[in-house]
C-alpha cells in the first residue's frame, strides 16, 4: 500500500528511526522496507516530519504483529528465555504444560521448554528440570554481543544476571589481570577478556569448563583466557599476588573462599563479592568477612554496595565492590 515514508540511506536508518520515534510520527502499522541502498520509514504525519528529512510515497506492507504466549493464553505467563530454551517455574504441572504449549505455538524462537524441578544443589550448582516440550537442554545464549553455549542440565547459568554481569564487566580495563573464581561457562570471563584483560577462569564443574573453552573460541578470546578445571583453593596457589580484579559470584558460600581471594590479590585489587543476606543487614556480613580476611595486610575500601535482585522474601542477592590496597 502506498503510504508516506521518510527515505534515507541505509547507514542513516537507525538514527532517523530514533528521530521519528522522538517526534512521535513513526507509523508502526507498516513495515520499514529497504530498496537499492535506501530505507523507507512509514510516518503518520508528514507535516510533523523534521524539515531536513525527505518524505516520499512508497509501497509499504502492513506490519505483522507477532503472536505472543499471552495472546494464546489470555493472560501474561511468567517465563525466561535462554537461547531457544524457555524456562518456567510452575508448581501446577497442568499449568506448566499449558504455558509451554503456548510458548512453542507463539512466534517466539523457542524449541524447548523446561520447568524448574529443584533448587540449585550440590557443589556443582546444578538443578533438576522437567522437560515439557522438546528434548534438548543445550542452547546458545546471546548477551551484550557475546555467545555462550551451555547445557542447562549440566551447568549453572542465570539469564536474570545479565545486567549485573554487564555492570561489572564495564569496569574492566584493558591489560588487567582478572581472576574469576567460579566462572561457569564464562559470562563474566569472556566479556572481560574481550575488553583486553588477561583472564584466569576456574570452575569445579568439568562440563562447565568444557563449555567455557568452547565459548572462548566462539568469542575469539582464547589468547587472553586461561580456563582451569579444579578447586579454586588449589588453583589459587599458582596465582599469588597476581590479580587486579577478582570475581566471586558464589552467593551463600563466597565467604569460605576469601582467604584464597586475598592470596591471589595483587597490590591494588578490586573484589566483586556476591552474597545473599537478610534485608535488615544486606551488606554488613560480607563487609565484615572481607575485612577479617584482608586486614591489616590490605586497606579495605568499599567502593559500591549494590543490590542485584530480590532472592526470597526478605532476602537479597547483593554485591560488594571492594578495593584492596596493600599497606
TrEMBL record:
Protein name as annotated: Class I SAM-dependent methyltransferase
InterPro entries per record: MeTrfase_TRM5/TYW2 (IPR030382), SAM-dependent_MTases_sf (IPR029063), TRM5-TYW2-like_MTfase (IPR056743), TRM5/TYW2-like_N (IPR056744), Trm5a/b_N (IPR040601)
Entries under PROSITE patterns matching the protein: SAM_MT_TRM5_TYW2 (PS51684)
GO molecular function: methyltransferase activity
Domain SAM-dependent methyltransferase TRM5/TYW2-type residue range list: 79-326
Record keyword tRNA processing present: yes
Keywords of this entry: Cytoplasm, Methyltransferase, S-adenosyl-L-methionine, Transferase, tRNA processing
The species this protein was found in: Haloarchaeobius litoreus
Pfam family, one: TYW2_N_2
Signal sequence range: none
Metal-binding in keyword set: no
Swiss-Prot/TrEMBL GO biological process terms: tRNA methylation
Amino acid at each position: 500500500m502506498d503510504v508516506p515514508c521518510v527515505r534515507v540511506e541505509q547507514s542513516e536508518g537507525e538514527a532517523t528511526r530514533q528521530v521519528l520515534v522522538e517526534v512521535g510520527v513513526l507509523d508502526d502499522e507498516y513495515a520499514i522496507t529497504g530498496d537499492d541502498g535506501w530505507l523507507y520509514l512509514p510516518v503518520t504525519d508528514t507535516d510533523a516530519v523534521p524539515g531536513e528529512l525527505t518524505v516520499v510515497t512508497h509501497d509499504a506492507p502492513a506490519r505483522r504483529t507477532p503472536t505472543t504466549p499471552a495472546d494464546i493464553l489470555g493472560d501474561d505467563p511468567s517465563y525466561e528465555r535462554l537461547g531457544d530454551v524457555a524456562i518456567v517455574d510452575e508448581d501446577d504441572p497442568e499449568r506448566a504444560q499449558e504455558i509451554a504449549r503456548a510458548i512453542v505455538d507463539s512466534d517466539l524462537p523457542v524449541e524447548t521448554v523446561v520447568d524448574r524441578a529443584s533448587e540449585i544443589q550440590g557443589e556443582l550448582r546444578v538443578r533438576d528440570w522437567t522437560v515439557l516440550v522438546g528434548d534438548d537442554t543445550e542452547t546458545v545464549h546471546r548477551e551484550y554481543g557475546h555467545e555462550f553455549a551451555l547445557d542447562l542440565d549440566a551447568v549453572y547459568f542465570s539469564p536474570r544476571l545479565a545486567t549485573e554481569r554487564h555492570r561489572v564487566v564495564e569496569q574492566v580495563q584493558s591489560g588487567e589481570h582478572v581472576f574469576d573464581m567460579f566462572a561457569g561457562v564464562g559470562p563474566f570471563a569472556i566479556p572481560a577478556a574481550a575488553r583486553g584483560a588477561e583472564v584466569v577462569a576456574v570452575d569445579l564443574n568439568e562440563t562447565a569448563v568444557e563449555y567455557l573453552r568452547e565459548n572462548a573460541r566462539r568469542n575469539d578470546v582464547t589468547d587472553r583466557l586461561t580456563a582451569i578445571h579444579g578447586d579454586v583453593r588449589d588453583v589459587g596457589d599458582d596465582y599469588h599476588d597476581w590479580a587486579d580484579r577478582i570475581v566471586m559470584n558464589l552467593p551463600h558460600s563466597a565467604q569460605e573462599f576469601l582467604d584464597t581471594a586475598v592470596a591471589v590479590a595483587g597490590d591494588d585489587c578490586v573484589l566483586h563479592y556476591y552474597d545473599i543476606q537478610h534485608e535488615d543487614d544486606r551488606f554488613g556480613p560480607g563487609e565484615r568477612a572481607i575485612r577479617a580476611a584482608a586486614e591489616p595486610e590490605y586497606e579495605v575500601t568499599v567502593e559500591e554496595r549494590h543490590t542485584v535482585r530480590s532472592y526470597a522474601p526478605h532476602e537479597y542477592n547483593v554485591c560488594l565492590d571492594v578495593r584492596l590496597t596493600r599497606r
